[in-house]
Amino acid sequence: MQRLAIAHQAGADEASATPSEAIAMSHSSLFRVTPLILLSMAAILSGCATAPKGGAGSLIASDVRLEVERDRPQSSRQQRIDRAAIAQAKTLHVAPPRFADGADTALSPREREVILAGVGRALCTTTSEFFEVVAAEQPADIVLRSEVTGVGLTNRGVAGASLVVGALSPIPFTPRLPAGMGGLSADVVASAADGARVLEFRWAQGANAFTTDATPSRLGDAYALTDVLARDVRRLLRDEGDGRRRERVDAPVRRRSKEACLASFGRIEAGKRLARLALPLTPEFVEAKAGGGDSGR
User: Fold this and answer.
1) pLDDT, tens digit, for every residue of 17-76?
2) Terminal-to-terminal C-alpha distance of the chain
3) 3-class SS at 269?
4) Residue 51 and residue 260: Cα distance in Å, rounded?
């Protein structure tokens, strides 16, 4: 919407100008656009933030040997998984996520609340496609626990500048400025009913200039990456090996499970959900405060 308004105004100004003025305006526009093109090219050359170096949390023991799926500065994935045991599971409970000791020293209590709500809701609603989600007091074949081990903070000024560049750029889907981006790291453990661990997953991801939208909030990137974490956990839980994948549960079960997730981790107001499609709303604004009136992602 911002880009359309700017383009409309520019076209109106140029249409009402004399030929000599129009040429001058065209040259002026070129000089304004050139830095935007250069910034976009820079984003293409350096499009990812370094993932936060989260310390080892308390969920996964230091002597556990994890298989390295990916080990890059921008993202890492390590896991140990019992696919046969997971394939037998039908029900799942998602425990409230928590922060590892020392992982939240730079965050306010409200910021911690926002990140934990995002992690919990994302893990629950995403895995509910393949498992029936049950409450804590009900027996579950799998209990999913998570621990945030690191939060890379977003530079609000650079994120705001990225929004301005995107609005002014003539290039569709202009990448955001490749600086000041944040990230997230977490450990996720799935335990069977007898307490045996069927999944231990260590995960870290930095924001991407192409796929992570800029939001003028310190938590903007970390909050956005909760969905990426959840999708990676879902991928591990649905893959039964040998090219086989778990089938989605029936639609009525999915609906009940999603309601259970929202009851546990809160809803995002319908108006805010719609506004997020067009506006860079901050996570602090989107997420309801604990005990507040907002009651889905």
Assistant:
1) 444 444 344 344 333 444 544 444 444 445 788 888 766 678 999 889 999 999 998 999
2) 23
3) coil
4) 32
Confidence of residue 141 (pLDDT cuts 50, 70, 90): very high
What is the rounded distance in angstroms from the CA atom of residue 64 to the CA atom of residue 80? 9
Name which residue leads in pLDDT, 143 or 161: 143
The string of pLDDT tens digits covering residues 286-295 is 898 765 444 3
Rounded Cα distance, 235 and 151, in Å? 23
Neighbours of 61 (CB within 10 A): 9
Reported as type and span, the H/E element at residue 79 is: strand 75-81
What span, in angstroms and rounded, lies between the C-alpha atoms of 287 and 296? 10
- Read off the tokens for 200: 């231990």
Amino acid at 193: A
Tell me the C-alpha distance between 59 and 57, whole Å: 6
Contact by Cβ (8 Å): 256, 235: no
- Percentage above 70 pLDDT, the chain: 79
> Would you say 197 and 191 are in contact if contact means Cβ atoms under 8 Å apart?
yes
Please report the pLDDT score of residue 46 as a whole number: 52
Domain ranges across the chain: 1-45, 48-286
Phi first, then psi: what are they for 173, rounded to 5°?
Answer: 55, 45
Give me Rg for the CA atoms of the chain: 22
Give the residue among 271, 277, 278, 38 at the shortest CA–CA distance from 288.
Answer: 271
Q: pLDDT per residue over 84-119, tens digit each?
A: 999 999 999 999 999 998 887 889 999 999 999 999
Select from 95, 79, 81, 118 the least CA-distant residue to 203: 79
| Contact present, 80 and 228 (Cβ < 8 Å) | no
